[in-house]
Amino acid sequence: MEPADELLRAVEATLFAAEEPMTVEALSAHLGGADVRAALDELQGHYRARGIQLVERGKRWHFQTAPDLAHLLRREREQVRKLSRAATEVLAIVAYHEPVSRAEIESIRGVQTSGGTLDVLMEAGWVRVAGRREVPGRPVIYATTPEFLSHFGLKSRRDLPGIDELKAAGLLDPVDDAYDEMTEKARDEPTGGNDGPPEDATALENPQESA
Q1: What keywords is this UniProt entry annotated with (predicted)?
Q2: How far apart are CA 136 and CA 159, in angstroms?
Q3: For residue 153, what pLDDT is reported?
Q4: Which CATH class is domain 85-204?
Q5: How far is residue 139's CA from residue 1's CA, in Å, rounded to a whole number?
């Protein structure tokens, strides 16, 4: 068997057995420093039309159920934890404008944000503490996690739905052009500011079943 075939099988076996998604660097280190990128691309193509697929989410790789078959694995009695409106608003603000402080979140929402709301999002594994803002008082700032990207089927924050997509889905009321421009800019930039968030975060609720 060719060395390339052996590496392909090793990458496949490692990802299949991994308890959590793995980065290219972690996978390479696990396999003795091998260059695994070509193997990942080949495996992704091999599994593209199968019942499970190899996907990259937040720079981490894992196998997941093909989206059109996810319903076959759902239990008859699902326990779905729905976020409150406040939590979905805060999650959307963090996703589109990260890193942001609690004060900045409150400024964007226009209302006070309870510490419990952020605790819920951190407990879910979707929001993390990303350090402190270098300003007087050094407030804590928050950002999304790789688990957030994986849960909502996003490869990166650039895949977040834009204003046009949210409007087409009927999830936003008409807004002016300046607001559109600010929100699109927040989505495309690696770090956010104090621009307004989408008015409804339900566009993010598109979970995929993981294998």
Answers
A1: Cell cycle, Cell division, Chromosome partition, Cytoplasm
A2: 34
A3: 80
A4: mainly alpha
A5: 57
* Residue in this structure with the two tokens 């407990």, named with its chain if needed: 123
Q: Could you tell me the residue ranges of all domains in the chain?
A: 3-73, 85-204
3-state class of 2 per DSSP? coil
Separation of alpha carbons 200 and 203, rounded Å: 7
CATH architecture of 3-73: Orthogonal Bundle (1.10)
Q: Find all residues with CB under 8 Å of 136, minimum gap 6, and list them.
A: none
How many residues does the structure list for the chain?
Answer: 211
The per-residue pLDDT for range 121-176, each reduced to its tens digit, is: 998 889 999 999 888 888 999 999 988 888 888 888 888 877 666 556 554 444 33
**What digits encode the pLDDT tens for the residues 172-195?**
444 334 444 444 555 555 444 433
Separation of alpha carbons 90 and 101, rounded Å: 11
The confidence score (pLDDT) of residue 195 equals 37
> Of 46, 44, 11, 49, whose CA–CA distance to 29 is shortest?
11
Looking up tokens 């068997």 gives: 1
Residue with tokens 């609690």: 102
Residues with Cβ < 8 Å from 74, sequence gap 6 or more?
209
CA nearest neighbour of 151 among 103, 86, 83: 83
